[in-house]
Specification:
- The chain contains 14 helices and no strands.
- The two termini are 27 Å apart.
- The protein is rod-shaped.
- The longest helix has 247 residues.
- The protein is mainly alpha-helical.
- Helix 12 runs parallel beside helix 13.
Amino acid sequence: MSIVKLQGFPIPAAGENFSAGTVSAVTNLLNLGEVSVSDVSSHFKIDPSIVVKHLTGRDPDGYTNKTLTQADGDAMNKLVTAGVASIQDVANYYSAPANVVEEFFQNSYNYTPAQISNARNGVSINTVSDTVDAITPTQDANPNTGLRGSEESLNTGVAAAINALNASNTQNSALLRKQYEEGLATATNQNTLAQGQITSSTEAGIDALNASEVAAAANLNTQTDAGLLDAQNAATKARGDINYGVAQGMMGALTGNILAKDAINTSTQRGLLAAETQAGVARGDINTNADLGLNALNSGLDQARSDISTSFDRAEGMYDPYREAGTNALGVQQALSGALGQDAFNEAYNESPQMAFLREQGMRANLAGAGATGGLGGGNVQKELQRFGQGLASQGLQQQISNLSTLSGQGLNATGSAAGTATTGGTNLANLAAARADAGMQSYSNRGTNLANIASGLGTQQLNTNVNQGTNLANIESEFGAQKLNAYTNQGANLSNIASNLGNQQLNAKTNLGTNLANMNITGGNNEMNALTNAGTNRANLASALGGQALGVSTGLGNSLFQNNASSANLVADLNNNLGINLATGRTNTGNYIADSENQTATNLANSYSNQVTNENNVINGQRETLVQLVDSGYINEAQAQTMFGEYISNLEMSRGAAASGVPNVPIVNANYANTIGNAAEAAATGYYLGGGAGSTNNAGMNFSPVQQPSLSANIRNVFPYND
């Protein structure tokens, strides 16, 4: 049993179940006795009762009235016998006292105390302890040493030794014959037993091989089915994941498509609204600035017309005196010319201030001259005045007409200049009006052009925006279609790959299963052939060894009898001459020898126990690794060990007889696993001699009767491991 066998099995997480493969493999380990209930419970952290329930299928309530049903008992006995469960495991499963369970197994299945001890410890009840009790030779507490002991030995030892030799000589002669017969019979029996064990172990090995092949085939089928099921489940899950991923991807793409279209539509509407708003603002700015420009132009033109009109009025006013003087002079001139009639002429001429002044001055002069001459009232005076008046009128008229012509010419010029000024002013005002008309026309034309450009630009922007919107929406739809195409294409490819991989896995699993089963059948056939061949070879070797043993025993018996008689005579003589000396020397060295013996014995015991632990570990590890080989060869080795044991018994009995016939000083023999039974038997023969013969006891009180020998019912291979 070793929990190491379970280290390769994973422990499921909380809430998860054990896989079918793990349950099957662990069950096989339990059935083979590789692990125990406590090992499985400790490794997987589960209640031992769950393991017992799984293995037996028995109801824990089967324990009633301090006993178990026959079916429950048989099921639990199988577990306890193999060492898979302990007495305490069974007691815990049925909630029963451990001592009651022990009594049940003792009474129902005849468990011995040793088997109960093994069952308590969870060890197979058929396991035999690998330890051997070591015999430590003892000595008297206060032995006589030195000269006194030597003298006592010289006085009493010879007589006692001669008597013992005489008695043992007679006894050993009979004993040699008896041991010869017993050794030959034992060898024959061991040969027969070994052949039977070879046959039975070969059959058992073949049965175990067949059973292991069946179990292995079942495990292969189970593991293959479990692997195929896992692969199918994984493929189904992968297909579900792929479909789910595609659905989620399509949903995400559709959502993105809708959001992108909404964003494009929203941004387009916002762009159009912003364009229309900016176009409206631009139109308002154009109209406002055009109106402001026209208003400014009209104000400027009005101010210019006002300035021109004021300037022309001032200029015309400057010509008015000349024009009026010319107009008046022209009227007087017309009157003086007679064009307006006599009255107009007379009035114009007579009323002329110049003429009135000249006439007054002339008349005054004539009158003054006439007065001087006294001729004021004369006709001459009157005639002179008339002549003066006619001459003055003729001269003044021409002068006046000339003056008037000058004045009228100046008036004409002033009128012409005023007319030119008025004409220039009218032209300037007409030019201003024409410039106003042109500026207004240009302003309205530019306004219309700008407004038309804004409308055209807005229309172009709206057209481009709508075209871009349509293009973007078309691109989104096209991209969405490509995404769907790729998603469905990848989905199909992935599903196809999963199906292909699943098919390959199933094909490989079935192929490997067939190959493994075929290999198992071939290996099983080879193993069975080898087992049968080895069995025949072992039987032949046993028969040959038995013949050699019989020959050796017969030859050894004659030699032993001859040596026994010769040795007895020589020994009596030697004892008479040397026994006292030997005893004295032995007594002298007894103290040192006892100390050395005790020290050596302790050392041997320590080494023995250390080797025992090492051997136990090696045997256990070897048994785990070579279970099948032990099944095939274990009984063969046991048969050989039994045969060797028979040889040892025969040879040792003859040696013991020879020793009893007279060996002067036999060294103490310690237990040694390398020599196994031979050394143990030699130790018994030495004890027989030192104890003083058959039926006597040594200082430790142990019986060393020559007929005492180990029981053949023990499993020799387990007690004394034998390596050939």
